[in-house]
Specification:
With 387 residues, this protein is of the alpha/beta class. The chain contains ten helices and 14 strands. α6 links the parallel β5 and β6. The N and C termini lie far apart (53 Å). Its EC number is 1.1.1.179.
């Protein structure tokens, strides 16, 4: 209990380390005064000697200034292009709504910046492919922020599966169920034009995790059942193409099946009692199963339960890698930042997400949307003139 409290406290209040005196630390700029930016980048940067959060841009100058003041950021820009025009920015963090990932990542790359792009990559696989091809052409690093993948607990879960201890994998199930009320009606997650939907927001992790654990891509979408998002008061223009919930069954090679259930706000029991959020990965093999509780934010708390049929059950918890870098209080975002900086500095990161992983993930998200009848999220209208 004491180590849990200490870990949670340090995640929220990480130590600040002196910044490197040589080479000059990387200067990061943030596009948008986004809700996720403090947890995903500003706090992790404190303990990284090679990272300074130098600039933020927002659609309004006042918002940028207030965010910069709150987080001790030197520069505040009105408009995202102004930040990209600053030659001192080395790396851009793009936590804009999903539908703006493509446009602003392309513009950041065009400006010669490395990019940490929020998940899901973009609205379509084609856009994802183009972003990575453009990064390659420019010789820049582009990383989609599937932060959970960088935590040693995920590496351990995969190592157990790959070791053959569970025998041949038969089924994988990922549930990401959040409780009603976490996101209000105006949230970007419920806006189709901004690339909203449960499958985009949560399902992108689920799809990624299933593909990672099996080291395979699906071969088919067997079924996809959406539950439409219904706002409290339904405007005349309301179109039911945002999924509050999505359930999908996927076929994989070797007769493996996988199921996904993701929900941005499951209704309360009897309309009153909030349901407990559920974020789990279950892998069933011929010889046994592995269940990982909280695979997305393992630093906070997680467990990996391995049950061998007719045999033993054990529980593993891995907060700090046995090899390599990291502390028990490093969030998934801190591990991710370490890898990003290593890659930019041309050191081999301990974990990385390759271009094809991001592209394939978007491709299968689109396929699930097609099967569900809701269709892909709208393609960006931005025509990159510099591809
Ligand atoms: N890695 C993770 O754990 C998480 C990742 N995410 C991802 O990060 C991204 C942002 O999520 P989150 O921080 O929750 O989002 P926010 O609702 O905070 O929006 C992010 C920013 O989008 C900007 N924006 C630009 N255009 C619009 C528009 N038309 N409507 C609304 N906002 C706009 C706003 O910038 P401005 O300040 O300029 O007004 C806002 O600050 C998403 O892609 C999401 O999937 C989200 C949460 C967790
Ligand atoms: O990690 C997350 O948890 C909550 C989600 O809505 C968010 O977008 C996601 O990245």
């Amino acid at each position: 209990m004491a180590s849990l409290v200490k870990r949670l406290y340090t995640v929220a209040n990480p130590p600040s380390v002196p910044k490197s005196t040589g080479p000059k630390p990387l200067l990061f700029g943030i596009l948008g005064a986004a809700a996720i930016a403090p947890a995903a980048l500003i706090l992790p940067a404190r303990s990284h000697p090679d990272v300074i959060i130098y600039a933020v841009a927002a659609r309004s100058k006042a918002k940028a200034e207030s965010f910069a003041k709150k987080h001790g950021i030197e520069k505040a820009y009105e408009g995202y292009q102004a930040l990209l025009d600053d030659p001192d920015v080395d790396v851009v963090y793009n936590p804009l709504p999903n539908a703006l990932h493509y446009e602003w990542t392309m513009k950041a790359l065009a400006a010669g910046k490395h990019v940490l792009n929020e998940k899901p990559s973009a609205d379509t696989a084609e856009e994802t492919q183009r972003m990575f091809e453009f990064a390659e052409k420019k010789g820049l690093v582009l990383l989609d922020a599937y932060h959970y993948r960088f935590h040693p607990a995920l590496k351990r879960a995969k190592a157990i599966i790959d070791s053959g201890e569970l025998g041949v994998v038969k089924n994988v199930d990922v549930k990401m169920i959040l409780t009603k009320g976490m996101f209000g009606d105006g949230d970007i997650r419920y806006d189709y034009a901004l690339g909203g939907g449960a499958l985009m927001d949560l399902g992108c992790y689920a799809m990624n995790c299933i593909r990672y654990m099996t080291s395979l891509n699906p071969t088919s979408v067997v079924a996809a059942t959406p539950v439409a998002y219904e706002p409290a008061s339904v405007p005349a223009s309301y179109v039911k193409n945002v999924d509050r919930r999505m359930e999908a069954t996927l076929g994989f090679p070797n007769d493996i099946t996988a199921t996904i259930a993701c929900d941005l706000g499951v209704p309360h029991n009897f309309g009153l009692i909030p349901k407990i959020p559920k974020i789990t990965l279950l892998v069933e093999g011929e010889l046994g199963s592995l269940e990982m509780f909280n695979f997305v934010m393992p630093t906070l708390y997680h467990s990996i339960t391995v049950k061998i049929k007719g045999g033993h059950t054990r529980v593993e918890k891995i907060y700090k890698g046995t090899e390599g870098k990291g502390e028990a209080w490093w969030s998934t975002y801190r591990f991710q930042l370490e890898a990003l900086v290593d890659r930019i500095r041309e050191r081999e990161p301990e974990m990385w997400l390759e271009k094809q992983d991001s592209v394939d993930n978007m491709e299968w998200i689109e396929k699930v949307y097609e099967k569900s009848g809701l269709g892909s999220r709208p393609k960006s209208t931005y025509n990159a003139p510099f591809e």
